[in-house]
Amino acid sequence: MNKSRNLTRAEALIKAMADPATGDGLVVEDRSDQVLLRGLMENGLPLQESSDGVFSLITHTELITEEQVRSILDDKALSQIKKIECLKIIDSTNALLLRAELPSEGCHLAIAECQLEGKGRRGNHWLTPFGSQLALSMGCRIRDLTGVQTLPLFLGMSLVEKLQGLGFHGLGLKWPNDLYLYGKKMGGILVETSKDASGWKIVIGVGLNLSQDASLEQQIDQPVAFLNSQPVSEQYGRHELVGFIVESILTARSQQEQGVDLQEGWSSMDLCHGKAVRVITDEGVLTGVGAGITRQGAFILNTEDGTGTRAFHSGEISLRLE
Questions:
Q1: Are 200 and 138 in contact, with CB atoms under 8 Å apart?
Q2: Residue 267: count of CB within 10 angstroms of its CB
Q3: Torsion angle, CA of 32/38/42/46, rounded to 10 degrees?
Q4: For residue 83, how many other CB atoms are within 10 A of its CB?
Q5: Are the beta carbons of 186 and 225 closer than 8 angstroms?
Q6: What is the pTM of this model?
Q7: Could you give the CA distance from residue 160 to residue 143 in angstroms, rounded to a whole number?
Q8: How far, CA to CA in Å, does 263 sit from each of 37, 196, 269?
C-alpha cells in the first residue's frame, strides 16, 4: 500500500473511531489496517488496542468539524471560502492544497488534527501532535507573485493583533514567520506557491501550539510555548481559534493589497530589533544587531564586523536570536 493510500485509509479509520456511534471502539480485523494503526501509535497518535482487536481513539479534545468552523465565520469570510475540509490525519495541509485543484474564485480551507509531515520554512519539519495544535492551510488562485514575499509578515502582524485583542499578552514576531510567546516559539507561518495549467496557486499555512505536550517539547531543539498555558478572561474553543486565524489571513491579504505600511506595523512586534542575532547563510554565519525590515520586508542587519548594514530576503537565510 503506498503512502497516499495509507493516509486515506488512516483518515477513514480514525474518522470512524471518532464517531460517537462507534461507542467503545472500532473492531479492526484486517491485518494491514492493524499494522497501519500500530505504526501510527508508535508515532504518537493517541490510540489504544485491546486484546481482541478493538482500537479506540483516546483524546479529551473536541475534534474540529466543518459545521463548527462555518458557525464561527461571518458571512464575508464564508463568501470567500468555497470549500472546508476537516481532516483527522494528513501528511501536510500545505501539501494537500498544493496538490488540489483549487477553485478559480475564492479559497479552499484545510484543517488537520495531526500532520505526519508538517512543513516549516527552509524544509524544516513542523510537528503536529494529535489534537494539541492547530494546523490549517488556505489555498487560493492568484494572478501573479507580486508581493508574495511580504504576506507572512502581514499575516504575523494580523495574528498578533487578533490574539492581543482576545486578551493574550507577551506576543512577538521573529522575522519572517515565527510567532513567540514570552520568548518561546508558539507558532509559525508558511506561504508556498506553485503553478499549474490554470495559473498560480498560493497556499498559506499556519501552525499554533495550543496545549502542553511533553513529547513535542522533547523533540524540538528550542524552547516552545503553548497558547492555552496563558490564562485569559475568556476561554476559546479550537474551532473559534480557527475562525480567528481565517479572519487574520483574510485581513493580511487585504492589508497587503491596500499597501498598508509594513515597516510601521512590524516594528512594534519585532523581537529582533536592537537584539544580537546570528544570520546563517549558505556562505557562512554573520553576527550583528537586528535593525528592522525594509519596505519590501527584507531583514536588516547591522553587522558586528563593521562592514555596514545588510538586507536579506526570507529565502536566503536562517535567523537566530543570541
A1: no
A2: 12
A3: 130
A4: 15
A5: yes
A6: 0.87
A7: 28
A8: 48, 33, 10
How many other CB atoms are there within 10 angstroms of residue 272's CB atom? Answer: 23
Phi, psi of 227 (to 5 degrees): -55, -40
pLDDT category at 128 given cuts 50, 70, 90 is low
Number of neighbouring beta carbons within 10 Å of residue 127: 21
* Residue 215 pLDDT: 57
Within 10 angstroms of residue 230's Cβ, the number of other Cβ atoms is: 16
Which residue intervals of 166-237 are DSSP H helices?
A: 214-219
**What would the grid cell of residue 275 be?**
537584539
pLDDT digits (tens, 9 = 90+) for 229-263: 877 767 888 899 999 999 999 999 999 988 888 99
Q: Would you state the cell numbers that stand for residue 281, as one nine-digit string?
A: 547563510
Q: What share of the chain is helix, strand, coil (3-state, %, to 5)?
A: 35, 30, 35
User: How many Cβ atoms are within 10 Å of 51's Cβ, its own excluded?
Assistant: 5
What band does 1 get if pLDDT is binned at 50, 70 and 90?
A: very low
Give the H/E segment covering residue 85.
strand 81-87
Grid coordinates belonging to 180: 513567540
> Could you tell me whether strands 107-112 and 81-87 are parallel, antiparallel, or unpaired per DSSP bridges?
parallel
Which set of grid coordinates corresponds to residue 229? 498555558
For position 52, what pLDDT does the model report?
Answer: 84
DSSP classification of residue 292? E
Residue 150 CB: number of other CB atoms within 10 A?
23
Cell of 295: 519596505
Q: What is the pLDDT of residues 199-231, one digit of tens each?
A: 999 999 999 998 866 555 555 657 889 998 877
Residue type for 73, please? L
Tell me which amino acid residue 132 is.
S
Domains in the chain and their CATH numbers?
3-57 (no CATH), 66-266 (3.30.930.10), 272-321 (2.30.30.100)
Q: Which three cell numbers stand for residue 3?
A: 503512502
Crossing angle of the two packed helices 31-42 and 3-18, in degrees rounded to 10: 90
